[in-house]
């Protein structure tokens, strides 16, 4: 993959922390993936789309919050263990502070219709951001029929057959590895052409 050939830039822990602090403070719900891509791929250019997709796939396969997993994996790639810790703290700190305050405010008001309406609007916007991000990544990552087939298989496995995400990832991943496994090429002897000519 491109990520294997491209060396990750070494970034200072302070800068990693500030970037993920900004993402953690300004992203909403499932739309955090869009914010992560915008910051790491488009603005900072610390990762390319292939690397981002690779790290996102790993974070989805691991237990825990995808955004936190993604922060740890990205931080480790950019700044080692210290970078992973800085990214995790930056990502989680705003949510901890804001959700604590929101929980106190939410429980202290009996009338919450406006809050409920605002949350529905935010959820819809986050869904749109997430869809747009995956569309942009998919255009660059999907190369042919089998890529599309694996995507459809994963969607059907999770949404239609109600299989767990790890089971779907293992099954589809195994099929993808088998499909894209290196093929052995039959090498002809160096003197094969001369031997064929000698027959005529």
Give a brief description:
The protein has 200 residues and is an all-alpha fold.
Number of domains: 2
Series of secondary-structure elements, N-terminal to C-terminal: HHHHHHHHH
Flag low-confidence runs: 1-5
Total beta-strand segments: 0
Mean pLDDT: 80
Task: Characterise the protein shown here.
The structure is a single chain. With 200 residues, the chain is an all-alpha fold. The chain folds into 2 domains: 2-139, no CATH class; 142-200, no CATH class. Helices cover 76% and strands 0% of the residues. It is built from 9 helices and no strands. The protein has helices at 2-5, 13-26, 32-43, 49-61, 66-107, 113-141, 145-160, 165-179, 192-198. The model is unreliable at 1-5 (pLDDT under 50).
Task: Outline the fold blueprint.
Elements: H1 2-5, H2 13-26, H3 32-43, H4 49-61, H5 66-107, H6 113-141, H7 145-160, H8 165-179, H9 192-198
Helix pairs in contact: 2-3, 2-5, 3-6, 4-5, 7-8
Name the descriptors.
single chain, 200 residues, mainly alpha, 9 helices, 76% helix
